[in-house]
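Hi L.,

As promised, Dynein light chain roadblock:
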Amino acid sequence: MDSNTPTAQEVDETLKRLSSRKGVKAVVILNNEGQAIRSTLDETLTKQYGQLISTLVQQARTTVNTLDDQNDVTFMRVRTKKHEIMIAPDREYLLIVVQNPQESIQQ
């Protein structure tokens, strides 16, 4: 394990901190193969989000790289009528946060 790899405790703390934010409905952390490491969703939804978001990120990376081979995707935000899905891809991990945008901006 290199010094940049988070410990299980750090991952759990991050998951807890993100989950407690107002409006956050789910947090999923995937490895670079699209398999869930941690999730606040049930197993079925975790697999569905993992597969679909991993595919979306790969397509976005291919698109960005085709347009500029010196560039890469660092963050994605997908807003739907019901939710906002924030995606932070890294070399080894993929962080997905699903939130209700109305709740997150209300005081």
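The chain has a mean pLDDT of 88.

Thanks again for sending the construct details.

K.
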